[in-house]
């Protein structure tokens, strides 16, 4: 099976990456951009696997069968380094380690591949550490940076990279992938793909986790319950609680497994107090998990606000449908939240498109504040909720 199989609806990008993987002199630095859910990291890993593939005669390059392909996709290939962060930013020390690693010769493959999965999460001084290595890389090193858009990366970096832009795949393609790869019921897969707005990872979670579906519905219905300042403040608190519950649901099992693995590797006693040397390592792990949890809440809040935007997006679609929601418009512009069509139509009828756009701007403003400043989430959400009245 080819390493490219999960890149739904990205035929143009895949074709260019395939040609580069087959080349004897591919471009030394790449910038893969696209909205969340477009598959930037998947494309980067597939490209890396194709570059180091041991059996190019099977499917050009990227056979998905050889050891090099398997280890690359699993994150264990010695010649492929993948760096992403579960904290707010990639540290300058992590960037320096990357540069040092980039100067190592590949151990068995044609290339050493350096992937930065969150290139948008680097401060300017951190990015400058990478600049020289990307501008003049060692002869057998290829850099792949991933970011939501070219504007999220310093111009000095993106000017030295070949940029490819991925798009969100069609809803039908995401649903088909969930059915084929995960065995999801076709109707549930289609509803999840539509609700996730083609974000494959979120669609999979919605399809497999009833709790996640319930939390999303509660978020989307929030504007229907806004009547005054008091309900707005309560709605903001509810939105934060939903994001925290979603983050906790995602992290609890992973945190427990990491701690159990660490204790097992340390040879910790099954009962009684831990020795001081072990306690320090457990505390360090818990601190890392705490930082990751904070980032996770921010990410889930951003996703909750994206779901909230889908409510106003649907309202705007209905308001701009001059034929009352019938005809070509209904066929070409589907509602993300179609099960709420009746409530959406009622909401659209008592508000104006200009108001809807202002509310969408207010939601986007809070998204930016939460990801770029140290604002208290609850205060930001309360101000947003009041502005939605």
Give a description of the structure.
- With 389 residues, the chain is an alpha/beta fold.
- The chain is 59% helix and 6% strand.
- Give the total of beta strands: 5
Low-pLDDT segments, ≥5 res: 323-331
- The SSE order reads HEHHEHEHEHEHHHHHHHHHH
Average pLDDT confidence is 86
Secondary-structure map with pairings?
Layout: H1 11-22, E1 29-33, H2 40-52, H3 67-74, E2 80-83, H4 92-102, E3 112-116, H5 124-135, E4 141-147, H6 155-158, E5 162-165, H7 171-182, H8 186-195, H9 200-208, H10 210-220, H11 229-266, H12 276-320, H13 328-332, H14 341-349, H15 353-372, H16 377-387
Parallel strand pairs: 1-4, 1-5, 2-3, 3-4
Helix pairs in contact: 1-2, 2-3, 4-5, 7-8, 7-9, 8-9, 9-10, 10-11, 11-12, 11-16, 12-14, 12-15, 15-16
Name the features.
389 residues, alpha/beta, 5-stranded parallel β-sheet, 5 strands, globular
Gist of the model:
This protein is of the alpha/beta class and 389 residues long. The chain has 16 helices and five strands.
